[in-house]
Design goal:
Length: about 290
């Protein structure tokens, strides 16, 4: 018989909450360690991204299916969650880096120090957690009664009972964009487009940002772009001006700008590599003298 606490919350739910908190604290702690490293290697980032991304997705899966014990639906939800993790891997890497640059701008101008990877990894974990929960809840058929009280009751009722049109609408909008961003060329059609590198990879010099290179891709190579490449370039063109020019953010921005101009027509896999190169090149900025 499932043990419950005084308010009727299943022990399994409490353990799930504890795991989410543990992963969240672990993401911040791992990020602090990465910030403190004077030399950063790509496998340091790769394994952090994979563990926290997959961990968040799987915890989201269990959260979304916590009231549905049906084996078939759990398996279907797990497949959907893993597919969503694969599709969103590169987009979430970019979004997490952008959000980290916003927090770095705030800490730099407030305290005179750059704090990057605690935010980067925590945001990556939380985004995967939410996506996993939403993807699972879209197919779950809860065996529990519909909620009748508590916070956000209208929203909880809306997503409690199938067919959950709101969650399907979210998926119908987000998944095609994620697919086109992650699979822009034929070489991207692989089970997973990332892997740890050899430590001998040469890191580029830090570039200084000057102008949006992704708008130049449309101007100079518009006729050569298919739909996936257009979506990839458009997403980059929109996010480029949103990156603030704090020490780390400016280094990321300028280095990606140089890499993009050197290789204007690139696959999603190549763009992942360019982002890693930018992260590695920008890392010394975290250890320059504070203001």
């Amino acid at each position: 018989m499932q043990e419950e606490d005084e308010q009727g919350t299943p022990l399994a739910g409490r353990l799930l909450t504890a795991l989410v908190l543990l992963f969240g604290v672990g993401a911040v702690g791992r990020g602090l360690l990465l910030d403190q490293q004077t030399v950063l290697h790509q496998p340091d980032l790769f394994w952090s991204f994979v563990v926290l991304g997959l961990g968040g997705s799987l915890l989201g899966w269990r959260f979304g299916m916590r009231h549905d014990p049906h084996v078939g639906r759990n398996a279907l939800a797990l497949f959907g969650v893993l597919l969503a993790w694969r599709l969103s891997y590169f987009p979430l890497m970019v979004i997490s880096g952008w959000k980290a640059s916003l927090v770095e701008w705030l800490t730099w101008h407030t305290f005179g120090v750059s704090i990057v990877y605690p935010t980067f990894l925590l945001v990556m974990f939380l985004q995967n957690l939410v996506i996993g929960a939403v993807a699972s809840a879209a197919v779950a058929v809860p065996q529990s009664a519909q909620p009748s009280e508590g916070r956000l009751l209208w929203l909880r009722k809306l997503i409690h009972t199938p067919p959950r049109r709101l969650l399907w609408v979210v998926g119908a909008v987000a998944l095609p964009v994620a697919f086109l961003t992650s699979f822009s060329w034929s070489e991207d059609y692989v089970p997973f487009a990332d892997s740890p590198w050899s430590p001998s990879v040469q890191v580029p010099e830090i570039g200084e940002p000057s102008s949006n290179p992704y708008t130049e891709i449309f101007e100079q190579h518009g006729d050569e772009l298919g739909l996936p490449s257009r979506v990839l370039a458009l997403n980059a063109a929109v996010t480029y001006p949103l990156v603030p020019e704090s020490p780390w953010g400016a280094a990321i921005k300028g280095t990606l700008e140089a890499e993009t101009r050197a290789n204007p027509l690139a696959s999603s896999t190549q763009r992942i590599r360019e982002h890693y190169l930018a992260y590695l090149a920008a890392h010394p900025r975290l250890h320059e003298d504070a203001k």
